Amino acid sequence: KGHDVKIADLRLERDAIGVYLETIETFRPDAILLNLTTTGAESEYTLIGMTPRHVKKIAFGTHAQSMHEEAFKKGVDFVLLGDPEAGVSNLIEHHLDGESAAGVLTSRQHDKPAARWDDLDTMPLPALDLIDNRRYHSSIVRRGRRFTLLLGSRGCPFACTYCLYPTLFGSDNRTRSVRNIVDEMERDQRVFGIDAFYFLDATFNLKKSRVVEFANEIIERGLKVEWSCNMRVSPVDTEMLTLMKKAGCDWVFYGVEDQDFLVETKKGTTREATIEAFAMTKAAGIKTIAFTMIFPRHNIAENLRTF
């Protein structure tokens, strides 16, 4: 949209506060935008408190959306609802007037609908040119190999009581076209030397036909990449997993959670399906990781209320 942008990933800096203050002084932004997280809120509010008053503070993420009153008390000017790209675009188009911009909460307006970017294929590709991709690593990617994160879809139709995805992106599943996703992977490899990818989609295998189409697109293009994704234990079958492996899938993250409380958490799966999915995935040559959440049996009702 023609605006100058700078990314300061302070997690990578030894002197995070010093780097931040220097960036504010030299770049002189009209606004800052940050992903406000529950685990990092204390330090992030500290940074907001150090930011000059004339610089607008914009926050997004599940913590910001759920705890917007706290955020405003701590100095946040605007909270984005839904797709942050859509919300911040609206805010820029309205010259940082949050009262008029769709998908933007202010200290005076706490009840506005979320902003959605309906046609995800029209969203610009992530500006990886604004970061040093060599500084990032992952425990599931060989050290020294460049990797990045991808979102091929947004939203999730399932009703798991603990999940953040519907809070952030809604319960309607919106997808990018397979061609658009693989175009991004091809660009990342060609331009940035990235050949490992982790999909952050809530449920990569929501539709088996889409997974098959994606794998075939990679194979047909001859794209030599490794990738991993988050999946439910159903629908999973040997045919799909074998094709995924052929297309470069190296890891699958399954949402296992607490198998004693599948009904209470509305997980919509079974022990048997979980066991079978792991066995089939390993047989296909794909490594597995289980996301788990353990509830003390005597305190299940109280724990569930916290979600």
Briefly summarize what is shown:
By secondary structure, this protein is an alpha/beta fold. The chain has helices spanning 16-27, 41-50, 62-66, 68-73, 84-93, 165-169, 178-192, 208-221, 238-246, 271-283, 300-305, and strands spanning 31-35, 56-60, 78-80, 104-105, 147-150, 153-154, 174-175, 196-199, 226-231, 249-255, 287-291.
Describe this entry's structure for a reader.
Helix content is 34%, strand content 15%. With 307 residues, it is α/β, with parallel strands linked by helices. The model has no long low-confidence stretch (mean pLDDT 91).
Poorly predicted segments:
none
How many strand units? 11
Main sheet overview: 5 strands, parallel
Total helical elements? 11
Order of helices and strands: HEHEHHEHEEEHEHEHEHEHEH
Taking all residues together, what is the mean pLDDT?
91
Rg over alpha carbons: 21 Å
Strand order of the largest sheet: 5-8-9-10-11
Portion of residues in helices?
A: 25-40%
Shape: globular
Distance between the termini: 38 Å
The assigned structural class equals: alpha/beta
Strand composition percent:
5-15%
Attribute tags:
307 residues, four-stranded mixed sheet, 11 helices, 11 strands, 34% helix, globular
Write the layout of secondary structure elements.
Layout: H1 16-27, E1 31-35, H2 41-50, E2 56-60, H3 62-66, H4 68-73, E3 78-80, H5 84-93, E4 104-105, E5 147-150, E6 153-154, H6 165-169, E7 174-175, H7 178-192, E8 196-199, H8 208-221, E9 226-231, H9 238-246, E10 249-255, H10 271-283, E11 287-291, H11 300-305
Parallel strand pairs: 1-2, 2-3, 5-8, 8-9, 9-10, 10-11
Antiparallel strand pairs: 3-4, 6-7
Helix pairs in contact: 8-9
